[in-house]
Amino acid sequence: MKSRNQSEAGMFILLGFPSSRQFQLLFFGIFFAVYILTIAANMLIVGIVTLDCTLKKIPMYIFLSHFSFLEIWYITSTVPKMLVDIMTDNNTISYNGCLTQVYFFYALGFTELFFLSVMAYDRYLAICHPLRYNTLTTPNLCQQMALWSWICGFLSSLLLVIPSSKLLFCGPRIINHFFCDSIPLLNISCNQTLPTDVIYYAFAWIIILYSLLLTSMSYVQIMRAVYCLPSQLGRSKAFSTCVSHLTVVLTFYGTIIFMYIRSSTKVDKVVSIFYAVVIPLINPLVYTLRNRDFHAALKKNLSISIIFCN
User: Do 277 and 148 form a contact (C-beta atoms < 8 A)?
Assistant: First the structure.
């Protein structure tokens, strides 16, 4: 009995979305469909860019393939556990499992922020330095920039996980969320202090605002260059190359800033669903719906596959 109590004391309970069994099954169906569609859409992008000899040498598509690969793991860090909890009614997660989920969720989220900054810089070079673009952004350099985005994201996450690992929990370990997040952990800890909160929010905001600053600087230069173009048609064509990326930037930064700029409220789980579940599905659609190069590569590779199958 003593060992059983100690085991239970090391577990957290994720409240998720308390409701009747019928609604639980509805939630499962919706989230499962979104998860499968997200995985399929992002894997399609990675596959097409990898298979197409032309796309995999273009900087924008090099970053896009990394970005899509990131989205696959980003949604996987939260949704599969949530689906298991819904179907089994076993909403527990171990202490180590909770910290692991916190680490990978933030590592992948921070990596996405760095990728958005790198992709904004790529658009800046394409529009502001078109004649030197091919020499400034070689495929090898793009791969190095993508690698550093991964490294910076995973190292930055340690700045949040280390303070979270120092928290103590005296009362019920009930997390009012569908996954382990740092803010809900802070809310239920018994050694929550002002310095702890300041350290957490300072680390988070430094990373968020630093990446936002880099992205904004690129777009300020892009706006200036586009404004100086002599014709309206030229301005429209130049800006159209940034629309997809700018849409993703505004959506992602908007939701995370709204989430972390204020105190915890009842809508936190709804906002979290948007940036942890919905955005990874929206992003591949935004980048590919109006992308003629991707459509052409998709048709070509499908045709080749059909020929080989026959």
Answer: no
CB 207 within 8 A of CB 158: no
Q: Tell me the two tokens of residue 267.
A: 């809508």
What are the beta bridge partners of residue 174? 13
Please give the Cα distance from 8 to 3 (Å, whole number). Answer: 9
Rounded Cα distance between 9 and 151, Å, is 34
What pLDDT, in 10s, does the model give residues 245-257? 888 888 888 888 7
Reported as type and span, the H/E element at residue 297 is: helix 292-309
pTM of the model: 0.88
Q: How far is CA 35 from the centre of its chain?
A: 14
Per-residue CA distances from 12 to 97, 213, 272 (Å): 9, 37, 19
Sheet strands side by side (includes 11-14):
92-94, 11-14, 174-175
